[in-house]
Design a protein that fits this description.
5-stranded antiparallel β-sheet; 12 strands; binds protoporphyrin IX containing FE; about 25% strand
């Protein structure tokens, strides 16, 4: 996967529709050969305007973040994915060539080690060696329910069926992490490496945190416990992250999640995570908030009407 953030070369509103059409045509031409292409729109492109999704803004700085401006935000985020790295890179290059009204702001390559599907959930192993994805819903219906903007929301019409995407470039302190024993690491995450809960519950089922109110089994500051404390109402978001490795020990996660509401989705979880045990091993250095329009082309017509 390659994520490329682009900025408009010229900020002239009358030209916005021309530039957006040029970009979507470039994206269309990059599809095929097993390559999938997606787009997210940034607040710098749409705000301030009636057309801007209500909660879209530049990603704020959360506790502990050190955002590098060279790897943050963007008018749009183009995500090119596929199983063949060469095809993905070529497709991303083609987009850049064809979408001449846009210039690259930043880009990053990601991969999903041991990428697989299990009971409807996409799973992968992150650079810390842990399996990710179990907390996502296994049904498409539940995933759509968490991700897609509904028509009873107060969002602009064109945005209904779209989704807020949050991307966070999170650097890992791998050397520090590797000094901990596996047992310590599992208590920091709150699951075994392969996904089983610390109380022995299988990965796809619910742990019994109420039987462990003081965190003897699963510490109260474990990642999963702080991310999703109330097992009856899971955070309304769907995660799909990639690992990155930029050499010289600069490895980590391109965390990515989708939700219909930013405040109750990502922002609520991120705020809760402020005191987690994992915090001392990770540093968020970039990313942004984007809005992924609904499938099809109708949004483009409505947006630039
Ligand atoms: C810093 C890097 C991170 C690592 C290494 C990490 C790792 C993990 C792992 C291993 C799991 C358990 C398996 C799973 O459910 O997928 C998990 C669950 C989860 N993580 Fe993270 N995560 C990170 C960052 C984040 C961030 C930034 C958020 C959101 C703000 C987040 C939200 C969640 C949620 C909601 C769950 C599911 C909890 C549950 O349903 O039990 N994670 N994470």
């Amino acid at each position: 996967m390659r994520a490329v953030a682009l900025d408009l070369r010229q900020r002239a509103d009358p030209r916005l529709h021309v530039s957006l059409r040029q970009l979507t045509a470039a994206l269309d031409s990059a599809r095929g050969n097993g390559v999938r292409v997606g787009i997210g729109l940034g607040a710098s492109l749409l705000a301030p305007s009636q057309r801007c999704p209500r909660q879209l803004k530049a990603m704020p700085v959360f506790a502990g973040d050190v955002l590098d401006p060279q790897y943050s935000h963007g008018d749009v985020l183009v995500q090119v994915a596929g199983s063949d790295t060469g095809e993905v890179r070529e497709a991303a290059e083609r987009v850049l060539q064809k979408a001449s009204d846009w210039r690259m702001r930043w880009q990053i390559d990601g991969f999903r080690a041991e990428n697989r599907a299990d009971d409807g959930r996409g799973l992968a192993r992150n650079p810390f060696g842990f399996t990710e994805g179990f907390g996502n819903p296994s049904s498409q219906r539940e995933a759509a329910q968490r991700m897609l903007v509904r028509d009873d929301s107060s969002e602009p019409d064109w945005a209904v069926g779209g989704s807020y995407q949050v991307v966070r470039i999170i650097r890992f302190a791998t050397e520090l992490w590797d000094q901990d024993s596996l047992g310590e690491q599992e208590r920091i995450i709150g699951r075994r490496r392969g996904g089983r809960w610390l109380d022995g519950t299988p990965p796809g089922e619910e742990p019994n945190f109420t039987a462990d109110p003081h965190g003897k089994m699963t510490p109260l500051d474990a990642h999963v416990r702080m991310a999703a404390p109330d097992r009856r109402s899971p955070p309304p978001l769907v995660r799909r992250s990639y690992s990155y490795d930029r050499g010289n020990g600069d490895t980590g996660l391109i965390f990515s999640c989708f939700q219909r509401d930013l405040a109750t989705g990502f922002a609520a979880v991120q705020k809760r995570l402020a005191g987690e045990a994992l915090a001392q091993y990770v540093l968020t250095v970039g990313g942004g908030y984007f809005f992924v329009p609904p499938a099809g082309e109708a949004w483009l017509r409505e947006l630039i009407r």
